[in-house]
Amino acid sequence: MSEAKIDEKKILLSGIQPSGNLHIGHLTGAIKNWVDLQDNYNCFFTIVDLHAITVKQEPTQLRKWTLDLAAMFIACGISPEKCTLFIQSHVTEHAQLAWILNCFTGMGECSRMTQFKDKSQQHSENINVGLFAYPVLMAADILLYQADLVPVGEDQKQHLELTRNLAQRFNFLYSDTFKVPEPYIPPVGARIMSLQEPTKKMSKSDENQKATIFLTDSDKEIINKIKRAVTDSGSEIKFSPEKPGISNLMTLLALATGKSFSQIEDEFKGVGYGEFKSEVATSVAKWINPIRTKFIEIRANDKHLKEILLNGADSARRQASKTLRKVFKKIGFVQL
């Protein structure tokens, strides 16, 4: 694709922390949307390892998770030919702009962030400055690429509002420098719940590993987890708030097969839970199998994966450095 064509497209940026294996909810809630967006936007997708270290990490594990995440993005359909895929720490401009924006951010603005309050309670033994300034680094991530749009969930709306405020503040003080980003509200995806507690969202940090379907799970593991999933009283296969366990399994089957809830209800009328769960298990395993197979193939070629990430970082740096040079000039840094 020509650079002129790319320049015509709006810029969209999003990222995920390398903090463990992705599960089926990540696929339906975020990555599937990214795959759909990459044809219509100039997309920057980043693995935000700088954000990850606000919580203590084991270095070997962090390196593995980072490369695993990059490989899984590609296995799920993210194309390095259509978008810019890179690791955040490979583009030093993120940290440089974050420091500058820190100097334009009030203490009160950061202390009001609900995610800081929540994470401070979760990690009370490690309440660090990085955790406090996390939203400012996120603002730098977005503003570096002059992003028009940022996909945001409920927990990130406050951070995007801070980003918009910082862009407007800097533009007011030094003339137009940053594009003020807008939120991109993706289509409401299917909400995947825990297999063991179907009133709670599926989570990669769930202590009960039987509750979560990871994208790296084998067919056998997926089938066993679904067959052991918690169901509801009664025997009717019906999508209803009163039947969270069956509704969750119906959601998985709908995603795996493309069938509607009404089609599933008709097909399994009079069928017992055991037979229904077997069908869900087989269908979901068949759906995830090619993703896992592709992931294993990509991960086996470490050299090629790192080349993709190196090329992505080079491309990201070209855009990021343009913005940073402009910022340096406006605030008075000497440029040689």
Chain-wise SSE layout:
Layout: H1 3-8, E1 11-16, H2 24-37, E2 42-47, H3 49-52, H4 59-75, E3 84-87, H5 93-102, H6 107-111, H7 114-122, H8 129-144, E4 149-151, H9 157-174, E5 182-184, H10 219-227, H11 244-257, H12 261-267, H13 273-300, H14 302-331
Parallel strand pairs: 1-2, 2-3, 4-5
Helix pairs in contact: 4-13, 5-8, 5-14, 8-9, 10-13, 11-13
- Report how far apart the termini are: 34 Å
Total strands: the figure is 5
Outline the low-pLDDT stretches.
none
Please name the CATH architecture of the largest domain. 3-Layer(aba) Sandwich
Name the beta content range: 5-15%
User: What is the approximate shape?
Assistant: elongated
Q: Give the structural class.
A: mainly alpha
Strand arrangement within the widest β-sheet reads 1-2-3
Domain count, please report it. 2
Pattern of helices and strands = HEHEHHEHHHHEHEHHHHH
Q: How much helix, percentage-wise, in residues? A: 55-70%
